[in-house]
Write a structure and sequence with these properties.
The protein has about 250 residues and is an alpha+beta fold. Helix content is about 15%, strand content about 30%. The strands form 3 sheets. A 5-stranded mixed β-sheet has the order 8-9-7-1-10, covered by helices on one side. A 5-stranded antiparallel β-sheet has the order 3-4-5-2-6, covered by helices on one side.
Length: about 250
Amino acid sequence: MYPPPMSKPFSVALPDRGLIHIEGEDRKSFLQGLVTNDMEKVSPDRITYACLLTPQGKFLHDFFIHEGDGFLVLDCEGGARAQDLYDRLNKFRLRAKVKISVEETHPVYAVFGGSEGLPDPRHEKLGRRSFEKPDMEEKPFSEWDRLRISLTVPDGSRDLGLERATLLESHIDRLNGIDWQKGCYMGQELTARMHYRGLAKKHIHTVRIEGTAPAPFSDLPNGGTMLSSCGDLGLALLKDEKLYETDYGLVKPL
């Protein structure tokens, strides 16, 4: 059974993370019209999870918003993905009184059993997120990755197809990544329509894998798509009407 009970405190280094820094008096109002969550929720004592979408409501980026003294930090995917997010935000800056900078690589740790950092807003069992390395045992990334998959939590572009995935199919609404009461943001029309009309016909599920895991984003029988995996657990995007059929090749829904 997963997740296992936690023993003594430990941390996991999360690979491929970067940071976007946003300063200036318009920092919150600038993001308010772009991202899926309400910037009024952002505070120094909690992390806010949000996404940036295309105008058509398809996934581009997800990130964790931290508030400091006069600035915001977006904990995002690193490397070229961080640079892409930085470039996109700069295109929307226009006359907003903000200054944006990027660190393509920055350490981020998941902390279990300690007080470092702040709770992961997506799920209470995902521990706390910290930019500082905790003074405790460090376990391999697979420990966190398997837990994440068991909780059916997608991990950015590893699971959400760029400019293809929708947030309702990916359970971002269940992971505290969408605010249904806030004003307009880019991609809101499709997201709201799918929510209020129940238009999502497929969803991400945790699956058991027998043998070698299919490659990420490869097609499965019965209209499914394989996503990320760790050992014998993985995530797959499955059609609701086909969910209880048994033929998905090596993949069996839990």
